[in-house]
């Protein structure tokens, strides 16, 4: 084979390769060096054959690397494969680094790989910042005085801070992955179970709505229904709601204080309108009620009577038997009278041993009958110390245009006449 | 004159005082010139195998001293490697990369690119980074407290483009 023919064969081979790429068979040296007689030409062709083999091997090596085969091997003497070996070593190291990062090692850095180094190292920097934020968030949730749950879009618990765990009495592993509306917020304050579709927390989570309730209960592991104030806020991922954060406070003590306060308020209100000795209304309450009843009587043109009565010779009772006995007489008297008037009548202690009765819808005749009934009851009652007492009664009837003072004064004036008429009698204002 | 010489880190001297103008750095050429000329002379005096053994031992001595004086052995593994990598780059010794690491078994495959000993060398057919084998073993021994065998499995001199080492603890 002469040199020209060798070159022509080479040219055809290279032309094909450049037009059609290396293909499955690669770049094949078209001449068999063994068939060449000239030793010098033979050596050149052998060298060309070796170079062609190296090109092929290098090409296939780079193909395997491109497909991610990082264990790929190539012959040591292949000069074309050498830069690729450097690339393979870098890729192997990057693989190890990626694994390290996934396990939380944020010390990794990439050097001398141009833009890739920049991007990679920036990613590590961002991950470090994210880790710091996460650590801070954890510190915050750890010290919060409120319990915090984080649930996914199905309401399943994915996080609980230490306070929530402590309050509920569970270990986190016991409630992780459980729907919060089936294990924590499953009962109403009266203890009955919510139907899932009516459970307000479940509804809020599924519909992506915020939810507040200052009067809810959470069910602790022990079964105790803990009164809680709940705030539920939706969490978003991209533009879709993706679960919720539920913060809650144990308001057991608060409720107790509230109940105590309410009881105290009720007591104070009662004390403000009640005579402390006898337990019946005092003058303040009577005046309030009287004003109201007179307006009603005026509006509907209905009768209203006022009966004022006073224990006869009460000073003598105190002087003879002592103030304690006098107090007992007052208490017994008020019980007796209360038992003999209607529920709608307002009975109050006017002062000392003086009492008043407001009888709505009562005419003068009826008032007289009532007063007389009470007078005889009192006269007949055994008060023990003293055995018997009497009382004098004055009656006035509401007239249009009256106010508290005018109607009371008339009753008082009638009472005065009863006293001066000999006591133990009923006198009405003419 | 004593019969033996015991190396100490302080023997490296104070370069800021000794080289106020030329500074503390020189070229890789100078380093290689010294290393390869030593290899030549020693191999002719004591044989090649003994020479390579001595280079490994010297590398180990240097690695331990380097670790003691330059690195922080109290760091956890990941941070220690990151620190080692940074120091090797800043001192222009080489670019360290880990390919495999089993922290339980203490077995590693690591590469050092652009290293002092062989990067840019032609293919000799055998690896030449004996001193580096010892250097890496010395660092690992100082950090873990265990003796290591480090073998170079790829080298510029064998046709690769990085020096690849396998490190394993010596049992017993």
Description of the molecule:
The complex is a heterodimer of chains A (430) and B (172). Helices cover 51% and strands 17% of the residues of chain A. Chain A has 14 helices and 10 strands. In chain A, the strands form 2 sheets. Chain A has a 5-stranded antiparallel β-sheet with strand order 2-1-5-4-3. A 5-stranded mixed β-sheet of chain A has the order 7-8-6-9-10, with helices on both faces. In chain A, a hairpin with a 5-residue loop joins β3 (211-219) and β4 (225-237). Helix content of chain B is 44%, strand content 17%. Chain B has 5 helices and 4 strands; from the N terminus they run ααααββαββ. A 4-stranded antiparallel β-sheet of chain B has the order 1-2-4-3, with helices on one face. In chain B, a hairpin with a 4-residue loop joins β1 and β2 (107-113). The mean pLDDT of chain B is 94. Chains A and B meet through α3 of A and α4 and β1 of B.
Helical content class of chain A: 40-55%
End-to-end Cα distance of chain A: 160 Å
Major β-sheet of chain A, in short? 5 strands, antiparallel
Assembly category: heterodimer
Helix content of chain B: 40-55%
Q: Low-confidence parts of chain A, pLDDT < 50 over ≥5 residues?
A: none
